[in-house]
Amino acid sequence: MPPQAPFSQEALNRNTDLDPVTPLLPASSRNLQHALVIPANDISRFLQTDLLVPRLNQIHPYLWLAGRPVPPQPLNYLVATSREITADERIDMHMVWEQSGRIHLKPLPQYLLDHHFWDSHLICRGPCCVPGSDQAPPTVKECTRDLSRGGFGLLFSYIALVRYKSDFEIARAHHLLPEDIDWETWLKLVQNLLRTDATHPKNINPRYIYGELRLSRLNKIYAIRHLQVLRGYQFTRHTYGEIFHDYLTPLTAATIYVALVLTAMQVGLATTRLSSSPAFQNASFGFTAFAILGPLIGILLVVLIWGVQFTTNLIETCQFNRHRSVDVERSDL
User: Fold this and answer.
1) What is the number of H-type helices and E-type strands within the chain?
2) More confident call, 57 vs 4
3) What is the 8-class DSSP label of residue 141?
4) C-beta of residue 251 within 8 angstroms of C-beta of residue 298
5) Are the C-beta atoms of 185 and 152 separated by less than 8 Å?
6) Is Transmembrane among this UniProt entry's keywords (predicted)?
7) What mean pLDDT comes out for the span 84-91?
8) Where are the domains of the chain?
């Protein structure tokens, strides 16, 4: 335990001066070792987690299955179509909507509206930024091209989302824009961006060529393309009860339909024409067997999926807990 107070007397003093970068960044962030750190201490690493979307870039050839290659609809349209806007700081969930109608939007970071921050950390001027260059030369220690394209892409998405003053008010109500930005300032910013090449497709991350993406389709793409059947892209289920609900609901509907068909077949067998038909007799026998075995097989599959997912989660939890304990012990040395 440190033999002193956890913060200084000046920490809560509003008159204390901060460096220019700190107010533009979050208060804290989590690194790859799941430890909380100060974002300003390693801005490049923070920006990689805050702006890059590698998972979406990996499945970019298949994104047309999850959305259309057009800019997103404005916020007023999303509200008019009963979409529930949710502020979500995860960049890989930006403009992703669920079947429930909820759409995730990452609030526009303050640092993307700061000219000096762009000049210091985002604008790419090295050899890696030359058109046609696929990767940084060995002499370049770090290339900010991907960060620059990620920042341009996020700005591009908000140019499309906030087109009218009503969109601006919706964005302010959902805390999607910085509080110090007014409508006139936003107009000037958008006009400035549209006059330059900042919004050209070659300058933005390819993910932003597409607008809203459907989460259920992304899960299917990941399940097929990367064989992540149990994980998908981002499942919204958080309990095993939700898993059973999702799988048993369609099974219940199918069982009701099977019951209706069996009832109709029973009525058909009571008629003279169908009762004497060998084809109908065979179909009735086959469907009766299916009605008995089908739901039972379906329930067993659901239990099997639950068992595999439970075992997988248990193994991953144990492994993570062991590795995390080692990291904590090392940090105490």
Assistant:
1) 11, 6
2) 57
3) S
4) yes
5) no
6) yes
7) 95
8) 43-225, 240-332
